[in-house]
TrEMBL record:
Keywords: DNA-binding, Phosphoprotein, Transcription, Transcription regulation, Two-component regulatory system. Member of the two-component regulatory system CutS/CutR, involved in the regulation of copper metabolism. CutR suppresses a defective melC1 gene, encoding a putative copper-transfer gene, probably by altering copper metabolism. The keyword Transport does not apply. GO terms for molecular function: phosphorelay response regulator activity; transcription cis-regulatory region binding. InterPro entries: CheY-like_superfamily, OmpR/PhoB-type_DNA-bd, Sig_transdc_resp-reg_receiver, WalR-like, WH-like_DNA-bd_sf. Transmembrane segments: none annotated. One of its GO terms (cellular component) is protein-DNA complex. One of its GO terms (biological process) is regulation of DNA-templated transcription. The modification 4-aspartylphosphate is found at residue 51. The lineage of its organism: Bacteria, Bacillati, Actinomycetota, Actinomycetes, Kitasatosporales. It comes from Streptomyces wuyuanensis. This is Transcriptional regulatory protein CutR. Pfam families: Response_reg, Trans_reg_C. SUPFAM superfamilies: CheY-like (SSF52172).
Length: 217
């Protein structure tokens, strides 16, 4: 899942991004509304965590732009105000969910995951394919009953492949969904991660390389 965090309190923004990355999400961070519009115009995001009170371009206007473009991106709006009227106003702008500050990080993570599931074809909470069970919420992976310990990027790649339900996923698509914009697209990071993931999942291999196209399970 790829997430954009838009928050002008830089310490909070960076802390949220770090926490979401530990949950195997690819996260970009910007600190104002103008930068948010620029990123949205370049990258495809599953979820935007959007502070309402932003400099340069207000969060309301960023939300309106996402709605106007008809993007499948889901918006979780943040605000320091917990008034019901503010929550209603934010939802009427087109936000999909609303979370007042201060918030528990576990709740933020759960809401981001719930919104991320709504950007794609509905799938069960626990993904199962080829003898593998993947639970995104608990960040657990089992193969034939054996727990498999994965690093965050390995987990993210496996989740993308599982969600594709047998379709081929290109290296570019994996890079877009599992890594943030600071990753050099010309590195072999996808190939190396897939190799490590194959090894950890064990025999027989379940990740198939489709020459010239990508990978599938």
């Amino acid at each position: 899942m790829r997430v954009l965090v838009v928050e002008d309190e830089q310490l909070l923004a960076d802390a949220v991004a770090t926490g979401l990355r530990r949950e195997a999400m690819a996260v970009d961070v910007v600190y104002d509304g103008a930068a948010a519009l620029e990123r949205i115009g370049v990258n495809d995001y599953d979820v935007v965590v959007l502070d309402r009170d932003l400099p340069f371009v207000h969060g309301d206007d960023v939300c309106r732009k996402i709605v106007e473009l008809g993007m499948p991106t889901r918006v979780l709006m943040l605000t320091a105000s917990g008034d019901v009227s503010d929550r209603v106003e934010g939802l009427e702008l087109g936000a999909d969910d609303y979370l007042p500050k201060p918030f528990a990080f576990t709740e933020l993570t759960a809401r981001v995951r719930a919104l991320g599931r709504r950007t794609t074809v509905p799938l069960p909470p626990v993904l199962e394919r080829a003898g593998i069970k993947l639970d995104p919420n608990r960040r657990e992976v089992f193969r034939e009953g054996r727990e498999v310990q994965l690093a965050p990027k390995e987990f993210a790649v496996l989740e993308v492949l599982m969600r594709s339900e047998g379709a081929v996923v290109s290296a570019e698509q994996l890079l877009e969904k599992a890594w943030d914009e600071n990753t050099d697209p010309f590195t072999n990071v996808v190939r190396v991660t897939v190799m490590t993931l194959r090894r950890k999942l064990g025999e027989p291999p379940v990740i198939v390389t489709v020459p010239g196209s990508g990978y599938r399970i």
